[in-house]
Amino acid sequence: MNTILVTGGAGYIGSICVEELLNAGYQVAVFDNLSEGHRAAVDPRATFFYGELADRLALEQALEDSKATAVMHFAAHALVGESMVNPSKYFYNNVSCGLNLLDAMVTKGVKRFVFSSTCATFGVPGSMPINELMPQHPINPYGASKLMFEQILDWYGKIHEITFVALRYFNAAGATECFGEDHRIETHLIPNVLQVALGQKKEVEIYGTDYPTADGSCIRDYIHVLDLAQAHLLALQSKESAFYNLGTGGGTSVKEVIECCRRVTGLPISILEKPRRAGDPPILIGSSEKIKKDLGWNPQYQSIEKIIQSAWKWHQRHPLGYNDDNE
Ligand code: UDP
Asked: Domains (ranges, CATH) in the chain?
């Protein structure tokens, strides 16, 4: 039975991939320092290692104890805005600590790696949808840190024979029955809008209404976490190294997301128009033709309505996030 070591398995996307790995019959060991994640978000069927990515010995021990044959690496900082204020946090954790993980794998002879990368590695491309052949020129330290790690992976592939798949997510959203999105400081659009619907916030702020888009707000490509999780399983099973974009080929503006949340919740949601947030490209839409063709990825939830419905269900059931589960 294969065991997968999942770093960041207590976080939003990591926890849902852990659940899907377990459902598919894998054994899972989660490695997480709970700085962003939650203990209650770790599926009880998984083994849990509390540790820091900076701690090489802890990583090597976890690889050895779990007898992992592959690693899925989610543990990273992922906020564009924060990265524009505190770049050190992003380069240290996403690059240096990631490197520590790869070196621990080299020491322990673990050769298979699936990496959470991001569309932020592309910056502001000349055309949409973004495919894998387009140049990568990130415009924020978050995207730059992930691109650096992609390049490191490429070299570790050549030199240390680690085979890897880097999945460049567009905007992950939605929830499963058990696990959902709960950040200690919430900056993401959909949970912020739903917090207004829950009466926890007065209004949702729209960052920029003067972008060159039809309604002036930013357009993003929202992808259901369960579709992302399916891509991770396929990535794990594939034998080749590759980079794949994971989007839906379509985009939704901030204003359209808010309108959809009003429809799904049946509640009025007040808005407040604010200036642009530093580091935000106007439009990001991804093409996923390559992963469909190579790995047979077959997304099931490609509608903003379905994504928001699943998130709303989870947030209604967990209005305080994981804190109400006696974390
Ligand atoms: N956004 C917004 N209000 C919020 C949170 C986000 O207007 O409270 C905008 C943000 O500027 C971006 C889009 O919504 O254009 C998606 O942002 P999010 O932080 O969810 O994801 P990102 O694209 O930064 O990864």
From this structure: 3-173+222-245 (3.40.50.720), 189-219+250-286+296-317 (3.90.25.10)
What dihedral angle (degrees, nearest 10) is formed by the CA atoms of 42, 15, 254, 270?
-20
Span 227-279, pLDDT tens digits: 999 999 999 999 899 999 999 999 999 999 999 999 999 999 999 999 999 88
pTM exceeding the 0.85 threshold for the entire prediction: yes
Would you say the CB of residue 82 lies under 6 angstroms from ligand 1? no
Q: Is 95 in the pocket of ligand 1 (CB under 6 A)?
A: no
Q: Give yes or no for residue 194 CB within 6 A of ligand 1.
A: no
Catalytic, 211? Answer no
Question: Strands of 163-169's sheet, edge to edge?
Answer: 47-50, 27-32, 3-7, 70-73, 112-118, 163-169, 242-246
> Is 87:100 a contact under the CB 8 Å cutoff?
no
Our answer on whether the CB atom of 218 is closer than 6 Å to any ligand 1 atom is yes
- My answer on whether omega of the bond before 141 falls inside 30° of 0, hence cis, is no
| Whole-number pLDDT of residue 84 | 93
3-state secondary structure 100-147: HHHHHHHHHCCCEEEEEEEHHHCECCCCCCECCCCCCECCCHHHHHHH
Catalytic residue among 12, 26, 90, 142: 142
Pairwise CA distance, residues 153 & 327, whole Å? 35
Which residue has a Cα nearest atom 10 of ligand 1? 207
Tell me the backbone φ, ψ of residue 7, rounded to 5 degrees.
-80, 140
Residue nearest atom 6 in ligand 1 by C-alpha distance: 189
* Dist. CA 188 → ligand 1 center (Å): 5
Q: Tell the residue number behind the tokens 């104890």, with chain if given.
A: 65
